[in-house]
Amino acid sequence: MTATEYWLPVVWACLAAVGILIYVVLDGFDLGIGILFATQKDEKHRDVMMNTIAPVWDGNETWMVFGGAVLLGAFQTAYSVILPALYLPLIVMLLALIFRGVAFEYRVHAHSKEARCLWGAAFMAGSTLATFCQGMVLGGLLQGIKTTDHHFTGSALDWLNPFSIFCGVALVIGYGLLGAGWLIWRTEGELQAYARRAARCLGSLLLVCIAVVAVWTPMLRSTYLNTWTNSSSHAVAAVVLAVLAVLVSVIFFRSLKSGKDRTPFLCALGWFILSYLGLALSAWPYIVPPYITIWQASSPVTSQTFLLVGTVILLPLVLAYTIYCYKIFHGKVTSSDGYH
Length: 340
Hints:
- The termini are far apart.
- Strand 3 and strand 4 form a beta hairpin.
- Helix 6 runs antiparallel to helix 7, helix 9 crosses helix 10 and helix 11 runs antiparallel to helix 12.
- It is built from 14 helices and four strands.
- Helix content is 80%, strand content 3%.
- Strands 1-2 form a two-stranded antiparallel sheet. The protein has a two-stranded antiparallel ribbon with strand order 3-4.
C-alpha cells in the first residue's frame, strides 16, 4: 500500500466524520425543537420555538447530504453494505424528515386552530421518529453488520435489537436537550424558564444514557473491548474523555442555576462531541464494524482524488454560507418576531 492509498481514505473518513458531526449538532437542535412540542402546549410559545429555527433548519440538513455523498463517492463498498443492512430505518427516517418539513410549512399557513394543532402534532411526530431512527441506525451499525466477501449477508431486521432501541431513545433525549439549550439561548421570559426546566431533566437523563452506552458498547464486540484495553493511548483517551464529560456536566448544571444563556447549549454540544469521539475511537478503523476497514471499503485512488478537488472548492462555500446564515439570524426571538 502506497502513502497515497493509505492517507486518502483517512482524509475522507475524517471528512465524513466531521460532516456527520456537524449534521448532528446543527440538525439535532431543530429536531429537538420538534420533540419538545410534546411538552409545550401553548401555541404562542410553539410559534416562537419554530421561529427560532425557521431560517436555518433546512440548511442544517445539507450536512446529511454531504455525509451520504462522501459514503457513496469515497467508500462505495461501505455504501453497498450499509444501505441494505439499514434500509428500513433509513427509509423511515427520510420519510419522517419529509413529513416534518411539510408540517413545518403547512402549520404556518393553517387558518384554523384545529389545523394548527394537527400540523404541530405532525411536526412533533416527524421530528421524534426521524431522531429515533437515526439512533437506531447508529446502534445497528455499532452492533455489527454481517458480511461475506464484503457483501451484506444478514437479514433485513438485524438492526432491530435492544442496543439500537436504547440508542434511539438516548438520541431523542439528547436532541431534546439540544433543543432546550437552543431555546435558553434564543428566547426569554416564560419560554426560556420552561426550557431551563426541560434542560435540567433531559441533561440528567442524557448523562445516564451516555454512561450506559459507554459501558454497553465495549461488550458488543471483542474488537471494541480490545481497542480500549490493549492500547495505552486509548486508555489515556478514555480517562481524558471521562474527565472532560464530568467537567462539562458541572459547568452545565451550574450554568442553569446561574441563569447563563449560551452555556447550557454549548455544554450539550460538548457532551455530543465527547460521546461522538468515544464511539469513533471504539470503531476505528472499521467503517462497517467489525469486518470492513476504511481502506478495504475505499474507492479507487483516482475517484477519491477527483472528488477531493471538488470538495476542497465547495466545502468552504457551504461552511461560509452556514456561518453567515447563523450570523444574520442571531439574537433573541420574541412573540412579535416572525420569519414567514
